[in-house]
Write a structure and sequence with these properties.
It is built from 9 helices and 11 strands. With about 260 residues, it is an alpha/beta fold. It has 2 domains: about 90 residues, Ribosomal Protein S8, Chain: A, domain 1 (2-Layer Sandwich); about 160 residues, Trna Endonuclease, Chain: A, domain 1 (3-Layer(aba) Sandwich). Strand 5 and strand 6 form a beta hairpin. The protein is globular. The termini are far apart.
Length: about 260
Amino acid sequence: MAGPAETAGNVYQSILERIFLDRYVEGASEVSFDRDDIPAAAEALGLPRPKNVGDVIYSVRYRTGLPASILSTQPEGMEWIVEGAGRAKYKFVLVPLNRIVPRTELITIGIPNGTPEIIRAYSLDDEQALLAIVRYNRLIDIFLGLTTFSLQNHLRTTVKGVGQIEIDELYFGIDRHGCHYVIPVQAKGGTDQISVVQTKQDLAWCDQRFPTLRSRAISAQFMEDDRVAMFELAVSDNQVAIVDEKHYRLIAAEEIDTGAISDYR
């Protein structure tokens, strides 16, 4: 029997399928729609109206993906993504195929675990657990070689021409030369995918809100064996590219491998 999340995902896919197919013209590279089209499509299909309209977009971006009927219209080497197009507006956009996934051949770096046990005991979900691990173990500092400070998590704000966005956690940093940085962090746990759309939106907001600071977008993702993959991402030619990638595993003091430390050196 399908669970509630899976059932909701199927409903969301059906809703966006109806919206897309009603508007798609062969050869089109964009298909626009409004927020109000989501409950309207649900009603037309005889499906329950989504209580959280934003979750429909979130689900297909990070969890379920788009339905096969939409994927079948993708030219080779291209894929459909869903972007914000202004307040309460969205659009399907064809972009070059781009997947940000951890590489299997990278060495894993051991980091002494500084996460308080009470935080580990009461973390509510994978994303919150991952953000806490990154924060308490100063993985942003280690990864970027900066001194950084967390300002706020789950920051809801808006980007001109895009609409409302949510930044998982926002850091500010400084280097030894005194240069200041604004660092949006995206955290993905479980089967959620790192989003190129979210990366582009996060960087666009940083450039809009803090134009004098250097922006560096970070994504963190849980891997197998309690490892954490860290990516620095950048936008080049309207595509998201990997600037750097490292894998870390939190270890107890007695697990520290002096031989591995020599290898890191």
